[in-house]
Amino acid sequence: MATRTICAVATPPGRGGVGVIRLSGPDAAAIGAAVAGPLPPPREARFRRFRNAAGEHLDEGLCLYFPGPKSFTGEDVVELQGHGGPVVMDRLLQALIAEGALLAEPGEFSERAFLNGRMDLTRAEAIADLIEAGSEAAARAAMRSLEGAFADTVHDLVAALTALRVHLESSIDFSDEPLEGLALNDLSRQIEAIRQQIAATQAAARQGQQLREGLTVVIAGRPNAGKSSLLNALAGRDAAIVTAMAGTTRDVLDTHLHLDGLPLRVLDTAGLRESSDVIEREGVRRAQAAMAEADRILLVVDDGAAEQSDDDLMAELPAGVPVTRVLNKIDLSGRHPGLLAEEPNPCLAVSALTGEGMDALRESLRRTAGVDEGEARFIARRRHLLALEQAAAALDEAAEAARTGLGEELIAESLRVAQDELGRITGAVTTEDLLGEIFSTFCIGK
Amino acid sequence: MHPDRSYEVIVVGGGHAGTEAAYAAARMGARTLLLTQSIDTIGQMSCNPAIGGIGKGHLVREIDAMGGVMARAIDRAGIQFRILNQRKGPAVRATRAQADRALYRQAVRDILDEVPNLILFQDTVQDLVVESDTVRGVVTGTGLVLHAEAVVLTVGTFLGGRIHIGEHNRSGGRAGDAPSIALAERLRELPLRVGRLKTGTPPRIDAASIDYSRLDAQPGDEPLPYFSRWSRGDEHPEQVACHITHTNAKTHEIIRGALHRSPMYSGEIEGTGPRYCPSIEDKVVRFADRNAHQIFLEPEGLKAREVYPNGISTSLPFDTQVALVRSIAGLENAEITRPGYAIEYDYLDPRDLAPTLESLHLPGLLLAGQINGTTGYEEAAAQGLLAGINAVARIRGLASWTPARHEAYLGVLVDDLTTRGTSEPYRMFTSRAEYRLQLREDNADRRLLPVAREYGLIADADWADFERYCEAIEREQTRLERTWLRPQDLGEDSGEALLGQPLRREQNLMALLRRPEMEYDRLMQIPAAGPGVDDPRVREQLVIEARYAGYLKRQDDQVARQARHEQTSLPVDMDYGEVAGLSSEVREKLSHHRPATLGQAARIPGMTPAAVSLLLVHLKRDEPRKRA
Ligand SMILES: Cc1cc2nc3c(=O)[nH]c(=O)nc-3n(C[C@H](O)[C@H](O)[C@H](O)COP(=O)(O)OP(=O)(O)OC[C@H]3O[C@@H](n4cnc5c(N)ncnc54)[C@H](O)[C@@H]3O)c2cc1C
Ligand SMILES: Nc1nc2c(ncn2[C@@H]2O[C@H](COP(=O)(O)OP(=O)(O)OP(=O)(O)O)[C@@H](O)[C@H]2O)c(=O)[nH]1
Ligand SMILES: [Mg+2]
């Protein structure tokens, strides 16, 4: 049986829709009650106001309680169905975490359900797929969350903390060597400096969260498939040049648009093909770079052009980026408009020219955007903020230990914890790394 | 030894690993044969005449708690004892002793002779008896074929050993001993991964040629520390001081002038040396801005005339060695008695071992000591002990002993080696232990003695004594938790002074003891709190645990969280190709390492949490099939 209680967004916060947060584990009932008030009788929905420990009203909605083992995971489960968007859901998660829940790993709910025998054994493969896909999406989102100024400040932070630990650990492990020691008030000062740095990084990270500009969708496909036309249809204006000539679009065209309030950044790219033209080749290279960075690819296929095998084209796409396939020009092929395959990798039939099927495409984009953004990116950001918070707490503990004159080994312990937390953002700094730093910084050894 | 007799355990090598392995196996009741090149070098220290130090002292205490040899031997042979990190906290305090080499060898030999079913025999092992991929014995240089149910190989730096001094190099196991060439060649034919490492040693100096008058003396500590919990403090021989001197600009100039003749820099040596034990030429090159390096002049023994200059390990040519030694203060007229040298040797990749130290490819073969890529007497001895126990456990069908990372430094050591391998000679540091606060010298007995008792390694009387000790700790702990002090219980004036701070509300004594500046003695002076216990060891345990309480609790929680993974074992013959969803990179790593548990798998570099989940799901899916 698992010892930890985990929480996660079960259905992503669509704009204006209902978002569900699930808690599972031995403390689910207690944590749920702390945020939602008294739990309803098992398996009955009740209206509740959700509050954090400070009593702030966060959201309101339905609360359900499923005692184990008759629950989705086989453990005690509490479900909170809120109305708020991503920001509110994030604050709800924060409140649960503050009460002792941990953020679930990708696929962890299903994993528990499976391990507790609540899921058919034949579904092992499906669970494996889920875990794999989830962790890939999480890794990508984490990378994306770690971009720009935020990444720089975190890396500076890790470097400063490592440098301090190098001093402290070497003064412990090599105290019989004549090393330049670190005076205790020096130590305190440096701990304080790093603590300040974390505060600044937290501020930057929170700001990054607000500046989030929405998901990036890249339109890609063979030349003349109708990519630029599709962009224009989505944007509702002539943003891109459209001609009957294959190879019209050369550079990446960057547009911002809103689908019912969902902000999207849409990139139109050059058609993918081998070419002797230097400019076109560069265009294709840029298209590929854009795809690699995308949250989702809209793969446009000319439905009429008895398509050269789709597989070739699929093989040119970067692994791990979700794809929406768009069969275009159905006004010529005669196919019915609408959804041909379901999310998360949907396929739709449209005509960019007549607008048939475009509503279904918009609808599908909104739904997948919820998944892409809801799970991955906003969880990634939350994980990063959480790690920063824990690191800050560990540094406070270190500062307190230094102030009250507890031993260096206790200060070192808190700094190790802080480093482990930051490691969740940037990748772990192992003992080997640390020893390597020590041996290249100091002349050690007899 | 009778050639027709069969043994249960054969231990090859009479170094630090071999002696512990043989002693533990024999004391567990196995008919044990210790086969070594020379009976006279049993317990020989190849290099620096010292035992213990930070991280290493911790290992020695653990060996002692498991009923091993090393702590008792050094207590009989140590000629200068110190506690390192005295001013730091208890977790990182460590004992270190200079040894009299001859006394140490003698002490090890005397301790081995206590066990009736341990047979010593002098011969060189040249081959293993392998039957259907299982090791069943050894073949010696004199042509004897000796059978056993388990073989523990502890041949140290002897495999394919090559000694370098300047431009000269020759085969050798350590200065004065023959290398193991035949065995090394044979091992390379078996399905074991072999690598090359190197280490070095300084020249030795005639004590009579040193001018001590200008050097600082460093005496041992008072009161005299000791290693073994069974020692009474009167086993130590006469104590002496070490002396300290330094290299200088002239020394460094001499070294720079001869670098082109160093086998390290001419490319003659391929093996990787330890970064924390660099040769003096390495230090001069890598830290060019330093104009002095410290040297400890350590006596090799009470009667020995030789001195070990700790800090100038070198493989420079002999004439340079003479010049560099004589450039050092106090050593102007020094006579070198033995040249320094570097030695390259084969080691076997420890990732091919289970956490029991048994080979994954050749069951019946256990490996311990420097052969696994470690360096140091303590690291070797600790592994030997573990391998000895597990050799017998295997034969008798007992549970094997694989301490976890939070239970012992020995657990950290073996886990690091078997999961991550090593690219340089591996030495223990306290920073390697994430549970450093619980892995202390002072509680090694509380952590491990019960395990040792299970394996029959603790005598009844010693066990009874230990139980009394534990009971005393528990009793006093309960009393401290249950005794409450109210503000009005403090005497008029003395109470607050004793507490240091005012008492605002009722508190139990344990909470008061947790205050950073509080001392047990002082607390017990408050009439309502006293009188407390007298045994200083009991007091020490209470104070340390009170002091560390919050931190230890957090580490316990962490251990509990990981327990499930640590207890989920992975079959050795698991087909990782069948696990759905694993990347090919992770698959290859797992097939290569063959981790014993899910916890170990998670620690392999490059493993992701998702990969661990996938393994869990796979195991669960396979469960019903296995049961059927
Ligand atoms: C030059 C040198 C410098 C070193 N420097 C340091 C240092 O500075 N600090 C430090 O901590 N450690 C140092 N060490 C390492 C330390 O000596 C070893 O780590 C430790 O002794 C290893 O113990 P062991 O039991 O594995 O092997 P060893 O102590 O080497 O014992 C091996 C035993 O196996 C026997 N043997 C070998 N081959 C055979 C065979 N085929 N058949 C039968 N018996 C055999 C040998 O006779 C010997 O008794 C150094 C070692 C050397 C050689
Ligand atoms: N009938 C019909 N024609 C379309 C449709 N979509 C695009 N076209 C036409 O197909 C041609 C190519 O359209 P573009 O939008 O430029 O195609 P593209 O994929 O951007 O082409 P490149 O930029 O050259 O790679 C133009 O003549 C469009 O008018 C559609 O849905 N129906
Ligand atoms: Mg175009």
Describe this structure in words.
Chain A is built from 13 helices and 13 strands. By secondary structure, chain A is an alpha/beta fold. In chain A, a hairpin with a 5-residue loop joins strand 3 and strand 4. With 628 residues, chain B is α+β, with helices and mostly antiparallel strands. In chain B, strands 1, 2, 6, 7, 8, 9 and 20 form a 7-stranded mixed beta sheet that branches. In chain B, strands 14-15-16-17-13-18 form a 6-stranded antiparallel beta sheet, with no helix packed on it. A 4-stranded antiparallel beta sheet of chain B has the order 11-10-19-12. The mean pLDDT of chain B is 91. Chains A and B meet through helix 3, helix 4, helix 5, helix 12 and helix 13 of A and strand 16, helix 16 and helix 19 of B. Bound molecules: flavin-adenine dinucleotide, guanosine-5'-triphosphate and magnesium ion. The site of magnesium ion has 4 residues of chain A, from helix 7.
Task: Write a brief caption for the model.
Chain A is of the alpha/beta class and 446 residues long.
Residues in helices of chain A, as a percent range: 40-55%
Largest sheet of chain A: 7 strands, mixed
- Strand order in space, largest sheet of chain A: 8-9-7-10-11-13-12
Please state the structural category of chain A.
Answer: alpha/beta
Mean pLDDT across residues of chain B: 91
Write down the Rg of chain B: 26 Å
First-residue to last-residue Cα separation of chain B: 49 Å
Low-confidence blocks of residues of chain B: none
Oligomer: heterodimer
Q: Structural class, from secondary structure content of chain B? A: alpha+beta
What distinguishing features does this structure have?
heterodimer; A: alpha/beta; seven-stranded mixed sheet; six-stranded mixed sheet; 13 strands; B: 628 residues; 19 helices; 36% helix; binds guanosine-5'-triphosphate; binds magnesium ion
Topology:
The complex is a heterodimer of chains A (about 450) and B (about 625).
Chain A: E1 6-11, E2 19-24, H1 28-36, E3 46-51, E4 57-66, E5 77-82, H2 86-98, E6 102-103, H3 108-115, H4 124-145, H5 148-173, H6 184-211, E7 215-221, H7 227-235, E8 253-259, E9 262-268, H8 278-293, E10 296-302, H9 310-315, E11 323-328, H10 330-333, E12 338-341, E13 347-349, H11 358-403, H12 408-426, H13 431-441
Parallel strand pairs in A: 1-6, 7-9, 7-10, 10-11, 11-13
Antiparallel strand pairs in A: 1-2, 2-5, 3-4, 4-5, 8-9, 12-13
Chain B: E1 7-12, H1 16-27, E2 32-36, E3 50-52, H2 56-65, H3 70-77, E4 78-84, E5 94-99, H4 101-113, E6 118-122, E7 125-131, E8 134-140, E9 145-153, E10 162-165, E11 168-171, H5 181-189, E12 194-201, E13 204-206, E14 216-218, E15 242-246, H6 249-258, H7 280-286, E16 294-299, E17 306-310, H8 318-326, E18 336-338, E19 341-348, E20 365-367, H9 377-396, H10 409-420, H11 444-454, H12 460-482, E21 484-485, H13 494-499, E22 507-508, H14 509-513, H15 520-524, H16 536-567, H17 584-593, H18 598-603, H19 609-627
Parallel strand pairs in B: 1-2, 1-9, 2-6, 9-20
Antiparallel strand pairs in B: 3-5, 4-5, 7-8, 8-9, 10-11, 10-19, 12-19, 13-17, 13-18, 14-15, 15-16, 16-17, 21-22
Helix pairs in contact in B: 1-9, 2-9, 2-11, 3-4, 6-8, 12-16
Bound molecules: flavin-adenine dinucleotide, guanosine-5'-triphosphate (GTP) and magnesium ion (MG).
